[in-house]
Amino acid sequence: MKTRPVPRSRRRLRKEAVQSKTRRRARSGRAHRVGSRAWLLRASLVAVITISAVGLLGTGGTIGVVDYFAGDLPSIDQLQSSKLEQTTRIVDRNGNLIAAVYHENRTVVPLSKISKNLQAATIDTEDRTFYSNSGVDYRRLLIAIVYDLTHPSSTLGGSTITQQVVKNDVLDTAEAQSRTVSRKFRELVLAEEMERRYTKQQILELYLNTINYGNGAWGVEAASETYFGVHASDLSWAQATFLAGLPQAPALYDPFGTAEQLQAVKQRWRQVLDGVVAVGDLSGREADGLYGSDLIEKMIAAHKAAPPSPSPVTAHFVDYVKQYVLQRYGPTALYEGGLTITTTLDLGTQALADKEVKAGVQRYRSRAVNTGAMLVMNPNDGEILAMVGSADYNNDAIRGQVNLTGVDPLGWRGVGSSFKVYTYGAALEAGLLTPASLLNDANSVIGGHTFSDWDAKHEGWIPLRTALAQSRNLPALWTYSAEGGARVADFMHRLGVTASLENVNGVSTTLGHDALSMAEHLAAYSAFDNGGYRVSPHSVLKVTDPAGNVLESFDPSAGRVQVISPDLAYLMTDLLRGPVKLYLGALGNRTVAGKSGTTEAYTGSIFIGYTPNLAVAASLMHIDAGPTCKSGYARLATNFPPSGWQCPTSVLFGEDVGIGVWKPFLDAYYSSHPWPAAWKAPFGIVTHQVCKYDGGLVGTGGYTEIFLKGVGEPNYQCGGNPYPGETPYVAPLPTALPSPSPSPSH
């Protein structure tokens, strides 16, 4: 989509001028003080207006003047209401409004969708001869001039609706605000010419879509939603007459403002009602009934009860979407283009995710946790269903506006042992290991460096499946050392993680101290879930313009690239079911896979995993706004200087996040959604009986394990690959069959 450059728009300048202007002037009879210079101007206008009135009646000599002043009148295409600045709406996947983005909060609607009540109330208030005048009401204008000449300290408005459209939409800002004879003459000429070119319906539609109703509402649709929460087509007489009075002085007539402003808006409403009665559109009794209703009280109560805008629950996601649209279409399209951006978000899922993050922070507050994050995606195409970037967007003390889901590098953080899937996945893909391979959890010295595990214990040589489920550090460190960091980095990058590893050759990299994007990390895990396809986090399903033209539509298959085999994806998923079964109770009986991660000194803990149709990552941590760690546990940071960003909590494992945040979210989500069917093993997955001694093949007496056919199958018999120092294998003696019992005699 091509968009025009973004100068400071004329409409925006006009808005600023109008807001200032409406504090000093009034139309339709409201008096304001003016200086003596303005009084002299009015005197000089008498002759000019008289000449122009005569000239506009058809004298041949005036034709050239009209052409001179009206020659640059915009075409109907330029002036039509669809060309106005409009509000962009960001909605969830079900069409529910998430946020409105604008310079001027406006939604253009045709006249047919504007209440007849409002049309009548507006004309009764602003221009009673609208349908009979020629764009200028000379009788009303003459009365206003005489009044101004005889009342030096006040002014009486005489502009028609057409003249107001000229001032608001034709004259540039500087000219519209000037108080000169030439400007007034040009306004009159252009108003007459506009009446020749456009119908009354077009002029009224343009007026009702451009006028300022206060409280950031431009145009009647935005005003109807702002003040009453209804569409312009549904306005009652009470609502219509209330709105019709606001454009005269929107800054003064503010029902949500001070006591003086509230009193002023009530008085203005009474004036409008009296005017509508005078015209005969309402009876006096009907007007009194409307004025005596609780319309304003209900309006104020609804305004006070309304959630803050933008909502902090969705603020991180809105920021992310806005950044996407800005980069793709530019600021003019975003803030003025009236786009409808249909996003991937599901507001129900978002509310649930936000609730569980806040509950998790509260649950572990005694351990100094003060914030957290959660990202929920469709693992098959990367659609973001929920994004909670912090526990409180508006809390500066926790850097609440930093999006901890990592869609911005500012929010990247270490992922702890959840990184180990890249180490094991790369080794399994290369055929260096199998799930039954015994890994070293006995020797803690690697390359001259001594490492310890989270429990300071050693379990000897244990199968890869056990090492991953229990998140043992030494087996992962030895595996990383044996295969080399380059292989792991390549595997990670193929899955979609873009971060560079600080020290790719350092074995401690497998413990996840490098800062990664949670969003990319979750998308990488999704490849295990979806059969081996790389997906990218995506936030927008469709973008349409005000005319309904689709500017873009998300194609789920466009960015889907097979990066690992479906066999390896299934094997990794099967291995990742182990941590869930070990730590998350009954959830282990479901089709759920996941892994915990705990960073050094508990500066952040994560649980990340998936079901066949949902991928979820959750984290908890402590963050302070300043440079100093104020958690009370800074002393735990023995290998790095603690800071407000890297601030230890008390003991908090990734499993705690799984128990306190991740599992409650899944339990709640699937209480209202059906559990998906289990993953199906592809043809490249084979099953063998292996022994516990060394993971070799055995005919009987072993256990069943799955393997990658032709790549990661054991190629030795039990006893053929003992670990260093292991006691030689002794095959068990065949079990003797019991002797048959004699048949009983009868």
Summarize the structure.
39% of the residues lie in helices and 12% in strands. It is elongated, with a radius of gyration of 36 Å.
Q: How do the helices and strands line up, and which of them pair or pack?
A:
Elements: H1 10-21, H2 36-55, H3 61-70, H4 76-79, E1 88-91, E2 97-101, H5 116-126, H6 138-150, H7 161-169, H8 173-177, H9 181-197, H10 200-210, H11 220-228, H12 237-244, H13 259-279, H14 284-291, H15 295-305, H16 315-329, H17 331-336, E3 340-343, H18 347-363, E4 371-377, E5 384-388, E6 413-414, H19 420-429, E7 438-441, E8 445-446, E9 449-450, E10 460-463, H20 464-469, H21 473-483, H22 485-494, E11 515-516, H23 518-529, E12 533-534, E13 540-544, E14 550-553, E15 561-562, H24 566-583, E16 593-598, E17 605-611, E18 614-621, H25 654-669, E19 685-690, E20 703-708
Parallel strand pairs: 1-3
Antiparallel strand pairs: 1-2, 3-13, 4-5, 4-18, 6-11, 7-10, 8-9, 12-15, 13-14, 16-17, 17-18, 19-20
